Predict the structure.
Amino acid sequence: MAVPGVRIWRNARLASMDAERPSLGLIDKGAIMADATGRILFAGLEADLPASAGAEVTDCEGRWITPGLIDCHTHLVFGGDRAHEFEMRLGGASYEEIARAGGGILSTVKATRAASADDLFASADRRLAMLMSEGVTSIEIKSGYGLRIDTELRQLAVARRLGQERPVTVRTTFLGAHALPPEFAGNADGYIDLVTGPDLMRRLADEKLADAVDVFCEGIGFSAEQSRLVFEAAKAAGLPVKIHAEQLSNLHGAALAASFGALSADHLEHLDEAGAQALAKAGTVAVLLPGAFYFIRETRVPPVDLLRAAGAAMAVATDCNPGSSPLTSLLLALNMACTLFRLTPEEALLGVTRHAAKALGLQAEAGMLRAGLWCDLAIWEIERPAELCYRMGFNPLWRRVWRGS
Ligand code: DI6
Ligand code: FE
């Protein structure tokens, strides 16, 4: 009997990332079957594959299949670039000095406000194509360079449009509390009032403009108290929260976010032991961003040993943004997570699949090769999974599958 729309990938080695299997959930001599709606019907030993005459079959010739990669922290939509500041930093200025002198995030805000939605779409689309070419099938995209309601909503709309027009899952995050816009200089509380306005938050939720709400909790961003106000407003609108925390100093933002059941706390170079334990206890994912650490030449690495000891889930992402991490390679982020932060390849790979899915609240849909989840696959020309972390600047992707095709 022919089974219309069913697809099979056979003769493969699977790194299933399935939480019910040890380590990376390896399955030698594996196969995957997807139904016509793009969900996985079967992932396991080829010998156990259910009969399915008429299915479209791909012979993977022994290649490795992982879940499609998930970049769970990006600022992909923005105007302009910051190459000039890169030159200034090479001349001796620090990231914080440039930010305080009105450069930094605010220079990108100016360029983003000046850009049309089509311009923003076109430039983000090129960056997205780079990520997708390395097997990325889900991505988070934050606002935070509009810093006015109209331009924040424009950024979110462009992010949504990328998800509608390209074969990739896009989760959007409202990061209105990213920096203080010039109109509110000296009046951070006034700006927080605007960002936490109940009408805005409800609109973000009701019109499905944002899937989550984030805040940059930092000396050059917003205080822990202001972050709390953002979280309370998000919670009242039913939106999950995330935080940029402990990147340049320790304001205890991660523990605050954990107390709100945050999806993730991100950066974390200055996290302390209590913070690591709070994340583990709340099930908040610790998202590590080695591209930003590298690019702004941080010297303090996130306390990976404390996160491990606490049992916190760790994810790895590009933080793609024009100021601190102009990185459009999740594979390079994997390498950096291992070389700079000493993650094991196994931890790093779980960090761009299963744990990254959790950081987006997508753990029931993506991040593992398991029946019922989306059939998002990355098929690799490699001999062992650690090769994905080991190489630099080499892309071994053979095929990418999003929702079964
Ligand atoms: N932390 C970061 O690393 C980026 N945003 C944030 O909150 C930097 C954004 C930028 O410099 O444009
Ligand atoms: Fe970021």
The longest strand covers residues 7-15. The chain is about 35% helix and 20% strand. The pocket of DI6 (ligand 1) is lined by residues 104-105, 108, 178, 216, 244, 247, 292, 319, 321-324 (CB under 6 Å).
